[in-house]
Design brief:
Elements (H helix, E strand, L loop, with lengths): L2 H21 L9 H8 L3 H7 L3 H17 L6 H10 L10 H13 L1 H9 L6 H19 L4 H24 L6 H13 L1
Helix pairs in contact: 1-2, 1-4, 6-7, 6-10, 8-9, 9-10
Length: 192
């Protein structure tokens, strides 16, 4: 990466961080380009060099969060997808510390962002993100277990909504309980 490219990406990162920081106290639809620029220490023209709209900045923030999320796992996404398709059935159980600890750690370390997501799920594209992240994975697992297609959507909803219910409660309590404790609760619920 050249110095100019590095400067370009660092500026974009500052605007991402400024936008997320402002969203902690203000709904996204009321945030202005001027506020973002002031917080990030850039000119309005710099904002428009990177983005056409605040919506573009928001999309980039969501994409960056997803990329960062996957970095918490030891397995790379392609390896994980391969394992879901070809691992023995008894190894397809995802409610284990191997998967829950990185997931919950990421949430805990970025709890302010996730609180924003709780307040503004439609704006932050939470439903789409969770459906993409977990939908494809869980659907593939259910397919491997030969669960009929018409049943999978209900089961997928159950798993996603149940996991998110626990995470929402944990976030409302400011993630005071340990990651390990929340993982244990999730495992107990699913295994029963």
């Amino acid at each position: 990466m050249t110095k100019a490219e590095s400067k370009y990406f660092n500026t974009a990162k500052r605007m991402d961080e400024a936008f997320l920081e402002i969203m902690e106290n203000k709904d996204p639809e009321y945030i202005t380009v001027t506020e973002i620029c002031k917080k990030a220490g850039v000119n309005r023209s710099t904002f428009y060099l990177h983005y056409e709209t605040i919506g573009d900045l928001l999309s980039e923030c969501v994409e960056n969060m997803n990329d960062q999320f996957f970095s918490y796992f030891k397995e790379k996404p392609k390896d994980f997808e391969f394992n879901v398709r070809y691992a023995p059935l008894e190894e397809l159980y995802l409610i284990t510390p191997k998967y829950l600890i990185p997931y919950l750690t990421y949430i805990s370390e970025h709890k302010n962002v996730f609180k924003i997501v709780l307040r503004n799920p439609q704006i932050m594209q939470a439903e789409k993100t969770y459906s993409t992240l977990f939908g494809d994975i869980i659907d593939s697992i259910l397919e491997r277990y030969e669960i009929p297609k018409e049943n999978r959507e209900y089961m997928l909803s159950f798993y996603i909504e149940g996991a998110m219910g626990i995470v929402k409660r944990w976030l409302l309590c400011d993630c005071k309980d340990s990651v390990e404790y929340i993982a244990k609760i999730m495992m107990q619920v699913i295994r029963r």
